[in-house]
Amino acid sequence: MSSSDMKIITVIGSGLIGRSWAMVFVSGGHSVKIYDNQPGASAKAVAEIRKQLQELQEAKMLRGQLTATQQLALLSGHDELAEALQGAFFVQECVFEQLQVKQDVFRDIERLVGEDVVLSSSTSCLVPSKVFSTVQNRSRCLVSHPVNPPYYVRLVELVPHPDTAAAVMDAAYSLMTTVGQAPVRLNKEVDGFALNRVQAAVIAESWRLVQDGVLSVKDIDLVMSEGLGMRYAFIGPMETMHLNAPDGLEDYMKRYGEGIRRMLTSFGPVPDFSGTEGAQRIVDEMSQLIPSERQHLSARVARRDQLLMGLAKLKQEKLL
């Protein structure tokens, strides 16, 4: 496939993740067709993206080498699937996190595209072997799992189907890199992929510590935001250990490995996250800090995105 053929990307679904992917891809100079089966939804998505790109340009946070106007010229909305798929070399699915819905979408897509078109899912918790079970040619299928919001948090987990061709993984890795994302390759599928498994471990122990009365909801969040998170925004847990002993990782484990093992054996069972008195106490405590009404949550989401925008800018400046 020539470079001139590798310009059009189709995004299936015009929700938050679909719009975010579209913004990422146009920032890299790709033509993007957004498809949604709800009439008018893709046009609304284009209008929302126009507003966001203009705001990002004003804030000097627009990604890529093109202006907002130039990026918008690469974007189009479509209500017809066949029209949206015409000419695409890569399809990024972003529909509801329901297995049957995703399977039906990929079955429809396969009928309308050539054998060399890469089929990618944004699923956050469904393994590729299930998502692509209705696809005949599964060698061109993979999961490209973003982190919300993808425009500011650049990690993408590339997860292969057992039949995925190595060349397809390479192509997806190259695409994600060229549009400014930070892809990681999983060598095989696993429930939750990597990010959600690590996140689940943090969630479980945080929940247990609050539930057992060790500390408050507010303070466990500070443990991350003012402690671990300060390091992890720039280096991961493996490098953190490697740097925290005079002679690196092996030295670190000689010094602290037994203590880590002792702590791990003290961890309790998987918590009940709902339906218990203890779980309700945690929910109530969180709601006292940030009320659960939508206007309060929306304000905090906007604050989160502003902070992530600033962090992304800082990382870009410091890591160049």
Description:
The protein is an alpha/beta fold. Helix content is 52%, strand content 12%. The protein has helices at residues 16-27, 41-58, 68-72, 81-85, 99-110, 128-131, 166-178, 195-211, 217-232, 237-243, 249-266, 277-289, 294-319; strands spanning 8-12, 31-35, 75-78, 90-93, 118-121, 141-146, 155-160, 182-185. Strands 3-2-1-4-5-6-7-8 form an 8-stranded mixed β-sheet, with helices on both faces. Helix 6 links the parallel strand 5 and strand 6. Helix 10 (237-243) packs across helix 11. It is globular.
What's a concise summary of this model?
The protein is of the alpha/beta class and 320 residues long. The protein has helices spanning 16-27, 41-58, 68-72, 81-85, 99-110, 128-131, 166-178, 195-211, 217-232, 237-243, 249-266, 277-289, 294-319; strands spanning 8-12, 31-35, 75-78, 90-93, 118-121, 141-146, 155-160, 182-185.
Features:
single chain, 320 residues, alpha/beta, 12% strand, globular
SSE order and pairing:
Elements: E1 8-12, H1 16-27, E2 31-35, H2 41-58, H3 68-72, E3 75-78, H4 81-85, E4 90-93, H5 99-110, E5 118-121, H6 128-131, E6 141-146, E7 155-160, H7 166-178, E8 182-185, H8 195-211, H9 217-232, H10 237-243, H11 249-266, H12 277-289, H13 294-319
Parallel strand pairs: 1-2, 1-4, 2-3, 4-5, 5-6, 7-8
Antiparallel strand pairs: 6-7
Helix pairs in contact: 1-2, 10-11
